[in-house]
Amino acid sequence: MNIKHLTHRLLTLTATAALTASVATAQNEVKGTTYYLPLTAIEFSVLVERSAVEPGDLCMYSERFLKKSDVPMKASTTFRILDITARAIGVRDTSKMYTANVNSKHSIVTMRVNEEGIIEAVNAEPPARPKAKRFTPAPKPLPQNPRDFMNQDILTAASKAKTAELVAQEIYDIRDSRNQLSKGQADFMPKDGEQLRLMLNSLSTQEAILLQLFEGTTDRDTVEHIITYIPTKEVNREVLFRFSQKLGLVDKDDLAGAPFYISIADLHSMPTNAAVSDEKRSKDDANIFVTMPGKINFTLHRSEQQLMSQDIYAAQFGKTAPLDNEFFGRKLFTTLVYDPVTGSVEDIKTEPMK
């Protein structure tokens, strides 16, 4: 490649890189200056446990050989609610989108928005906020096969009734061995306490696994369901979700489940903010808006039972106003941190411009 062609190529690459950087800067600029204020939502976390019962292969012989009459005879699945918690979160309010005036007339250097475009800070870094902890189920032990604990006589039994008889006898022998060990009367006693503990645990494990042939097994799983509710007005006992012991959490329109109700009360309380402006706005305003949220109470009911009641501030029950234009004029440098859940001012500091 000759010098002329090499020079031309370098110039082309340089121009392309400059153009790319310019576009990237413009995109970041637009992202930084256009922002949303939040709506306040209530996020419910509902922990639901599912219990699946499977009858044992020898369940029909449990009364005859083990004197147990309360073992399950058919498969069933049931659900129950373990816990319900709630927290306020901020979601994008598409009706509250603004573009800040970032120019030589205003002392706006940086703006920070979260992943939803909700404003978090102006001329400041927002504080690190803890994320919601989601439920993580504990790992399950691998199921053990009762056949691994059967002797040859049990495995070669000619009928199911004979198998049940021999398994029951094995269970009684295990119990007898455990009792003798516990009383120190076994023919071969362990040398120390740790060895005794291991032997007793092993016998208990063998008994529990063989008992599954008569008593069946119960498999349990816990699942976290997230329900997001955005209050927009006062409501009295609105159905939030429904729950069925046979189906678990179902849609609020599914009459197979019992209803859980939410009520919203407007407490008509709103904090004042001396930093907002009541003056008529002009095109030269910084266009930095904040929310003065209103306080509400939400209550969760099941039938006539109150499960929780909490007061929170909600952006949509308050009002939105611009900050006084002096905060971002040529005389003051202002740092502003928002509450991303309500859109209110969390922290504001000013210093004279040099």
Write the layout of secondary structure elements.
Layout: H1 3-33, E1 34-54, H2 62-66, E2 76-99, E3 111-113, E4 119-122, H3 152-155, H4 160-183, H5 193-215, E5 217-229, E6 235-244, E7 248-250, E8 258-266, E9 289-302, E10 305-322, E11 332-338, E12 345-352
Antiparallel strand pairs: 1-2, 1-5, 3-4, 4-11, 6-7, 6-8, 8-9, 9-10, 11-12
Helix pairs in contact: 4-5
Sum this structure up briefly.
This protein has 354 residues and is α+β, with helices and mostly antiparallel strands. Helix content is 25%, strand content 38%.
Would you give an account of this structure?
The structure is a single chain. This protein is α+β, with helices and mostly antiparallel strands and 354 residues long. It contains five helices and twelve strands. The chain has helices at 3-33, 62-66, 152-155, 160-183, 193-215, and strands at residues 34-54, 76-99, 111-113, 119-122, 217-229, 235-244, 248-250, 258-266, 289-302, 305-322, 332-338, 345-352. Helix 4 (160-183) runs antiparallel to helix 5. The model is unreliable at 1-32 (pLDDT under 50).
Key features of this structure:
354 residues, 5 helices, disordered N terminus, 5-stranded antiparallel sheet, 4-stranded antiparallel sheet
Number of helices: 5
| Biggest sheet overview | 5 strands, antiparallel
Question: What is the averaged pLDDT score?
Answer: 87
Name the poorly predicted regions. 1-32
**What's the overall geometry?**
elongated
Tell me the fraction of residues in β-strands, as a range.
35-45%
Helix amount? 10-25%
Evaluate the radius of gyration: 34 Å
Largest sheet strand order? 7-6-8-9-10
Would you report the number of β strands?
12
Give helix and strand order, one letter per element, not per position.
HEHEEEHHHEEEEEEEE
